[in-house]
Design brief:
Helix content is about 25%, strand content about 15%. It contains nine helices and ten strands. The structure holds flavin-adenine dinucleotide. Belongs to the oxygen-dependent FAD-linked oxidoreductase family. One of its GO terms (molecular function) is flavin adenine dinucleotide binding. Its cofactor is FAD.
């Protein structure tokens, strides 16, 4: 078995033609989306918005159903309106004793609890992969949740060259969990760093905060294994970062993240 100095995700660019790693990376906010929807823009807030105040459901300036529908169209229908399962246990329109009993039963399962038990968590997330952040930094009041948990793609690369590295690597989706890496390792006869717990994401908060593995004493941190990144920046752009392109972003993501 060889250590795989894995890339997070690599992007190949030939003569200005961008080849995406995985098909879902091709679904991006476009200039025509922005032109068709005054609610969204690249790189700046729309005029008249006080950045210190956040809008919540029920506020007068909360977007109408029509405006949500336009946003949803620009996202190719990916927008979900979440009703947290645990809402069944709280007084209100979703209160339901039967569903609440199921929620209480599910609360004994780690997989259930980490994602959905507390209604507030499901309502106000800003960015969520597996939901293992000890300090709840995947939550923000008055924010949309960007849910990357389904980005599970994996591709083994027997030979690749990025920066000074040449050798085996892999393209990986941001949401692969520890237990999902082992079948890929076995199939390709390789070793990759992974978190100690089965459902922690290997390339989300773990990688961004360094990432200690059982084999770190021998092979180093997860952040050291990354060869290249595809990143959606806060201004809405999809960019490539590696040792030679967007160097500052490449350096920042690998350790500037939220881990413990
Ligand atoms: C049971 C358990 C075991 C653990 N074991 C280990 C271990 O062995 N080694 C170790 O080093 N750490 C370990 N940790 C800590 C773990 O690495 C961190 O909690 C990490 O932040 C979890 O990341 P996540 O993506 O799985 O979870 P999430 O809570 O979904 O994300 C964590 C943070 O990263 C952000 N984030 C996630 N994905 C992305 C993304 N694609 N882009 C931008 N931001 C993103 C989220 O907004 C959030 O703030 C463990 C934690 C738990 C709860």
């Amino acid at each position: 078995m060889l250590l795989l100095y894995a890339c997070f995700v690599s992007l190949i660019i030939f003569d200005d033609v961008v080849a995406y790693n995985f098909p879902y990376e091709g679904i991006q906010l476009s200039d025509s989306d922005v032109a068709n929807n005054p609610d969204i823009a690249f790189g700046k807030l729309p005029g008249g918005v006080n950045a210190h105040c956040k809008t919540f459901p029920g506020d007068s300036n909360w977007p109408s159903v029509d405006r949500w529908n336009v946003l949803n169209a620009s996202l190719e229908g990916a927008l979900l309106r979440v009703v947290p399962p645990a809402a069944a246990c709280y007084s209100g329109i979703y209160e339901d004793a039967t569903k609440c009993a199921l929620v209480r039963q599910g609360s004994r399962s780690t997989n259930f609890v980490k994602g959905v038990f507390h209604p507030v968590y499901a309502l106000i997330n800003s960015f969520r992969n597996t939901g293992h952040d000890y300090l709840g930094r995947n939550t923000r009041g008055g924010a949309l949740k960007v849910y990357v948990h389904r980005l599970k793609a994996f591709e083994y690369l027997p030979s690749t060259k990025i920066g000074n590295y040449q050798g085996k690597a892999a393209r990986v989706g941001a949401a692969l969990e520890q237990y999902e890496l082992f079948p890929h390792m076995e199939e390709n006869n390789i070793t990759m760093l992974a978190p100690g717990s089965s459902t922690v994401g290997a390339y989300g908060g773990y990688m961004q905060g360094g990432g200690f593995s059982y084999i770190t004493s021998k092979f180093g941190l997860m952040a050291d294994q990354v060869l290249a990144l595809e990143v959606v920046t806060a201004d809405g752009r999809f960019v490539h970062a590696d040792p030679e392109n967007n160097k500052d972003l490449f350096w920042t993501v690998r350790g500037g993240g939220p881990s413990e």
